[in-house]
Specification:
The protein is of the alpha/beta class and about 475 residues long. It is about 40% helix and about 15% strand. The chain folds into 2 domains: about 10-180 and about 350-400, 3-Layer(aba) Sandwich (D-Maltodextrin-Binding Protein, domain 2), CATH 3.40.190; about 180-350 and about 420-460, Periplasmic binding protein-like II (D-Maltodextrin-Binding Protein, domain 2, 3-Layer(aba) Sandwich), CATH 3.40.190.10. It contains 17 helices and 17 strands. A 6-stranded mixed beta sheet has the order 6-5-7-16-9-8. A 4-stranded mixed beta sheet has the order 12-13-11-14. The radius of gyration is 21 Å and the shape is globular.
């Protein structure tokens, strides 16, 4: 389904602002792509010393500013989350909110061995109607709309405080969970030790030269592989969603980034661009730990990087809470997934998912109050930034994130060096279930880049439309 949007001020925090535009629903609203739902806690990792960083925390609240429950009198609501890595932080905030408002908020998080989408579908099919659940883009939104579960949130106070709400025909229908971004994350100390300047890694030849140089120093650096990458059957959100997005948007202006997604939805690919993309991912696979690459999950991928057994990782700033739990504080940054010969100097940034207030649930009014409190109160803002390690989507939040990859995201955003998210403009399941396994075949050595291009092209030629397109 084709999407267009005009959005400004991606995130405004203290001394940081980024202007961008994203992709929109066919009725004129914002739609971006999902954060992964299959993440759990990484293995234990050794501690290192970080470069000094200034920490900030939420201002203490002298009184509660939580919204009062709506008149329905419902005293318990349920929120279903797809971010397992912030499960405890969200539950802790929900408990605090419950004490303030008298409304119990039950949080159910799915991920890891129990993927979010099937779990939510099973819940809804059983007749259970949670007050709040996550949708990640057009397909999920259209399913909720067809089922009559969408609530108009246009009158909520937080709407004026963000530029990345999900809209349908001018109505605000989705509360942005956070701002997220990814590139090729790196360990600064190891990169410095290897004598590689990250500023040289903004073209395919530049990344190739850096990988070759680092690979020749593995023993001296104490690493097992250059890149921490996972492309097996359980990690197709990394390849078939985030990876494919690089093909779709790298190098394109944020406000005019629909060229390649439009081609895809018209069953076409740019063969030269796709060939360059395939060669780049084949190189990532070549310089990865083969066991992690083909059989590892989120834990192993993040654990390899956290234990400083790789210099790079193909993940986004959503891993910051996991790194914090592990006590990891070494300095990190991002380089682009620069698969082209020309310079492409940016990372992928957008709103990954949205909370929908379920119109069929008995406590929809209380759900609105809960989200308003999350966006606007000191306690809610402290939860988003300090406890959950997220980059909030609300301009009034002045707390700076301390997570290393979130800080790197803001550094790129503040310079306007960002590319759009179009991965969820693809039909539901196409990225993870159809394209993801093709990456897996190349990662395991079953196919080479030309065959990857052939299979990818065949898949696109048979692409099905999104619901409602």
């Amino acid at each position: 389904m084709k999407m267009k949007q005009a959005v400004s001020a991606l995130v405004t925090m203290a001394m940081v602002a980024a202007i961008f535009a994203g992709c929109a629903s066919p009725t004129g609203g914002t739609a971006t792509t999902p954060a992964p739902a299959s993440k759990t806690t990484a293995a234990s990792a050794s501690k290192t010393t970080a470069a000094p960083a200034t920490k900030t925390t939420a201002a203490p609240a002298t009184k509660t500013t939580a919204a009062a429950p709506a008149a329905s009198g419902v005293k318990e609501i349920t929120l279903v989350s797809n971010k397992i890595e912030i499960d405890q932080a969200l539950k802790d905030y929900a408990a605090l909110y419950g004490k303030q408002s008298g409304v119990t908020v039950t949080v159910k998080s799915y991920g890891g061995e129990t993927p979010y989408a099937p779990a939510l579908t099973a819940m809804l099919n059983s007749g259970t109607e949670p007050e709040i659940f996550v949708f990640e883009g057009t397909s999920g939104y259209m399913d909720a709309k067809k089922a009559g579960r969408v609530t108009d949130l246009s009158d909520q106070k937080w709407v004026a405080d963000t530029d990345v709400a999900y809209k349908d025909g001018g109505k605000v229908v989705g509360f942005p969970v956070s701002i997220e971004g990814w590139g090729l994350g790196y360990n600064k100390a190891l990169l410095d030790k290897a004598g590689v300047d990250p500023k040289t890694m903004n073209t395919f030849p530049g990344i190739k030269a850096a990988f070759e140089k680092i690979d020749g120093q593995k023993a001296a650096l104490g690493i097992d592989a250059v890149v921490s990458m996972a492309a097996g059957s359980g990690m197709t959100w990394v390849t078939g969603l985030h990876g494919v997005n690089a093909y779709l948007t790298l190098g394109l202006p944020y406000n005019d980034s629909s060229k390649y997604i439009d081609m895809m939805l018209n069953k076409q690919v740019d063969k030269d661009r796709l060939t360059a993309f395939a060669n780049y991912y084949n190189m990532l696979f070549k310089y990865s730990n083969k066991n992690t690459l083909t059989a590892g999950g989120y834990d192993q991928q993040v654990g390899d990087f956290a234990n400083q057994k790789t210099v790079f990782i193909h993940q986004g700033n959503w891993i910051d809470p996991t790194l914090k739990d592990l006590g990891i504080n070494f300095e990190m940054g991002y380089v682009p997934h620069a698969f082209l010969n020309e310079v492409t100097d940016g990372i992928f940034v957008g709103a990954p998912s949205y909370y929908l207030v379920n119109a069929k649930a008995p406590g929809a009014g209380e759900a609105k109050a809960f989200l308003e409190a999350m966006a606007s109160t000191p306690e809610g803002q402290d939860y988003m930034v300090n406890k959950a390690g997220m980059v909030p989507a609300f301009k009034s939040v002045t707390i700076q994130p301390t997570g290393p990859l979130s800080k790197a995201l803001l550094a790129w955003s503040s310079q306007g060096k960002i590319y759009a998210w179009h991965q969820n403009d693809m039909p539901d399941g196409f990225g993870m279930n159809t394209l993801g396994p093709i990456f897996g075949q190349m990662a395991s050595g079953q196919i080479d880049p030309p065959k990857f291009v052939d299979l990818f092209t065949q898949a696109v030629a048979n692409i099905a439309p999104n619901p409602g397109s």
